[in-house]
Write a structure and sequence with these properties.
Strand content: 5-15%
Order of helices and strands: EHEEHEHHEHEHEH
Radius of gyration: 19 Å
Strand order of the largest sheet: 3-2-1-4-5-6-7
CATH superfamily: NAD(P)-binding Rossmann-like Domain
Number of domains: 1
Oligomer: single chain
Shape: globular
Distance between the termini: 68 Å
Structural class: alpha/beta
Low-confidence stretches: none
Mean pLDDT: 89
Length: 251
Amino acid sequence: MTSASPGVLLIGASTPIGRAITARFVADGRAVVGASLVPADDPSLTADLVADCSTRDGAQELVATALDTVGTIGVVVVASARQPVQVVHRTNDDQWYGAYQSAPDVLFHVASAVLPHLHPGSAIVAVSSVNAQRPAPWLAAYASSKAAMEALVRSIAIDYGASGIRCNAVAPGVVPVRRPVNPTPEYPLPYTITAEDVAEAVHFLGSERAAAITGVVLPVDRGLRIASPSTAARSGLAERAATRWGPDPQD
């Protein structure tokens, strides 16, 4: 099967963010080949594949199947991750290496397999995390694996830019999956990040609208990266922000 527009290869299609990314590209008329460690069970996918892309053989087999399915690939999205929750001295080898296998290893092996088949104008987009730069407690393995992924994004951007191939990342803040998360004072924007917010950023970086952008990490974090660490300790900040058009709170 071939599609009129180059297809999208999405690693991590079974996650809520993966499903939102699929929906966004499908709405744009793109065929999406999804791959995960378990079936995504998403009828929007052109192909729903089970693959372990943390190995060279697994990634090469997946890319070959994706090319057979859609003919050409124009966008590659790596949205896979594991998030072990543990402090450093209690993090075991399975947790540590599992975090790396699911993020930078997947990006490395998938990129290695697909880059020879990409044409000028193609894009690779990795889903990182704000934890790569501002790690939350007990997330050493996850945070460092995402930081390694961001470094690899920059290296791919440098090495393949002359071929017209771009590589970027998005770094979401907390995206609630099972229950709402109340906005906290350290976030300048007072609303919850959704999977659709992340998907929109991924779609933008994968599109021609971002033709001049490569090697960047785009935060999707309600402004967390620009906030001072002391913001949360400043009492009444949310109330001040809500009344910023009224009298000066200090008057």
